Request: fold
Amino acid sequence: MIDFTFSEQQTAAADLAVAVYTDHAEPEQIRAAEGAAEALNRPLWNALASSGLLGIWIGEDAGGAGCGILELCAALQVQGRYVVHAPVLPSAVGGMFIDRFAPAALREQLLPGVVDGTVIIAPALGELGPYLPTAPQATVSVTGDGAEVTGQKISVPCGEAATHFLVPVRRDDGTVLVGLLAREAPHVTVTPVRTTDRDHAAHVDMVGAPMVLIGDASSVEWLYQHCVVAACAVQLGVLEAATKAAAEYTSTRTQFGRPLTYFQTVLKRGADAYIDTRAVRVTMWYAAWQLANDMDGAEAAAIAKWWASEAGHRTAHSTLYLHGGLGNDLTYPVHRYYLWAKQNDAALGGPTQQLERIGEGLAI
Reply:
């Protein structure tokens, strides 16, 4: 039996996130941030930094609280409920990666900035084509003077605001590595793009750009698994908020003199959404628990992402369906759950790719 009771640290992370997001997640504030020219929601980001939330998963020797993926997922679940953009996920996972794998000098250089919000290290994982980040197509050449990367990473979450990127690359012999790329490095082009959920994402093009290599193939797998589970935590928050909104609306909206919940079709769609959301919750927290205990979470992360994709699509669609015409009204906030769920569905490998990962593991 899995105990889903939060620890004191996980509760504190979630409560702190609630306290910050509550003050910055009114529909008018979200619309203003999404339409702003600046990539970063500065008031929200400054509040997150001032609260200390950005550093709780960084080691104490670097100014953090020494927590980890479980506390991060607790905070990201809250962010998903509020559907407001802030680069907490990329900054946290990127910072945790540097904390774990980078040499001391690089840790001392970057991690204090991660804690205070001035440094955002975004994992740049996506590529054109059906490639998972564990099999990157971006290439790196290593010389006596360092390493140079050539390739493209697409739709990097919060990439427009990032100061650094973590880039999975491969050598000519097929060896897979992770490199740290500075946004301002020569031969790097960052092109802003908007994703389905209106994130300030970016494409990153590199042509012989200098980078610092960190870690090996196992670190690429570590980075991917942590990004996947963290994204599932955001998706869980989105689905929880979506099912709650649908339940409240169908309980109060009347048709033919009765609440919508009187009708069997409505009840069935709501029940299915509730069950799907519970499945995402169970699989996400199990995968996070494995990662927190330094276990191989490849299969658990793939299962969690499959549920987050499949259940996310069904639940988000049901939320719009149960709201009727209001679900398609862009001035009504419920449509954001659908946009976020669809983006999370496709990000980091959709359900088919996750099934392939599970199958590869079973075939070994």
